[in-house]
Amino acid sequence: MKPYKDILFLAVPIALHSVLFASLGFIDTFMLSALGGDTVAAAGIGSRVLWFVSNVIVGIAGATTIFCAQHWGAKDNKSLSVTVHIGMIHAAIASVLLVSAALVFKDQIAGLMTNDVAIAAMASSYIEISILCVLVTSFSAIWGAGLRAIQKPKIILYLFVFELILNVALNYLLIFGHFGFPALGLEGAAWGTLVARTASTLILFFYVNAFEKILSFTASSFVAAKERTKNVAFVNIALPIIGGEIIWSGGMTAYHTIYGNIDGTALAAMSILAPLEILLGSFSWGCAAAVGVLVGQKIGSNNHQELNAYIRAGLVASVTVGGTIVALLWIGRDLLIGLFHGIEPEVLDAVYLLFPFILASIFLRSVTMTSMSGILKSGGDTKFTMYLDMVAQWFGAIPLMLVLAFWFELPVQYVYAAVLLEETLKLIPVMLRIKNKKWIKTLSQKSTSAEPVPG
């Protein structure tokens, strides 16, 4: 039972933080729905762009977590501190480059994702403001990775509660213009997110420097972080993760682009359901992240017997979490979808039609997320997961979606079914990979090389 207790201890605060983080998009969509379907669709485009760009930073943070978890398991605090500095340097450089590119090409990006000129113009304005969040996230994501690796995820949760409350309050004031504030509509939602994220990151900076010295900036760790061999080792793990995030999030953005070019109703329906899918899938991400930290620590400490137990517990937990979420959502579907009663009737009908497909996606991703991000990536097997995402999405789901949407001109629910095929196709190679144990790589300098672990 210990593996399940350990997973629960870490998964609950990580999942709650992920749910709250994802709920920002859901809350924005809910509040903006009062302004009509076009505004919701524009917000959906802008959110997808922000999410795509942010996933590069998430990839760098993921590599940081992998190294930090193994260093923590090996009790190698010096290397852990250096890894945090390496992650911060790479995240800062990447965020500046990505934000600059998004600002230069915002109009072209928005125009590519919809053929409606009015929606594209609103989305471009939203991107111009919201994309600045990535600059701030480049710092908070790395500190968050370090805190999870040393098993202190509650700090991130508490801090984000503050950010969420501030964000919702600012949205209320700036979207609708209450209490003398200007009514900025969609742009108000973007400003609310940016200000709240900046405030919470500043608080995290002061907390880390006051109470978690192992994660704070130091001159010695910064000098060591510039060492070529350490950066090469980091990049060898990070690049496939970043590549996988770009491939996967790029595929998700391509899905949204296809919906946007089917018709406005399909785009508006998916703009409502996508934040909901991300929000509820966050419970699964909490499970995956917790499993990843614990599996990484067992690899770092060369505790192969316990490693097998944590792998089994992680897979059981992923099925349990995914199944529970789907069951609860199906029971409460009318209440949940009824929150959007102010939207156009044809959009609401499309939401009801697509809802069962979203539930199937949530369950499948719960299993694949824990298997790939929680287990394989924690062992440093990042290239395999990158290649698998690329093949399943770009050689499977996306070509099939294009054929179904624009050749056969089928309704959006049939087009979305191709997404389910992508997740299903991943399961067989992932389970075979986990079983053969070739994915295990020891990254901590204080550990010996890990051999394949007996099944």
TrEMBL record:
Organism taxonomic ancestry: Bacteria, Pseudomonadati, Pseudomonadota, Gammaproteobacteria, Vibrionales
Domain of life, source organism: Bacteria
GO biological process, one term: monoatomic ion transport
First-listed, main subcellular location of the protein, grouped into a coarse class: membrane
InterPro entries listed in its UniProt record: MATE_fam, MATE_MdtK, MdtK-like
Compartment list: Cell inner membrane
GO cellular component: plasma membrane
Bilayer topology term: Multi-pass membrane protein
GO molecular-function terms, A-Z: antiporter activity; xenobiotic transmembrane transporter activity
Transmembrane domains' residue ranges: 7-27, 49-68, 80-105, 117-143, 155-177, 189-211, 232-258, 278-297, 309-331, 351-375, 387-408
Full protein name: Multidrug resistance protein NorM
Keyword set, alphabetical order: Antiport, Cell membrane, Ion transport, Membrane, Transmembrane, Transmembrane helix, Transport
Pfam families referenced in this protein's UniProt entry, alphabetically: MatE
Coiled-coil boundaries: none
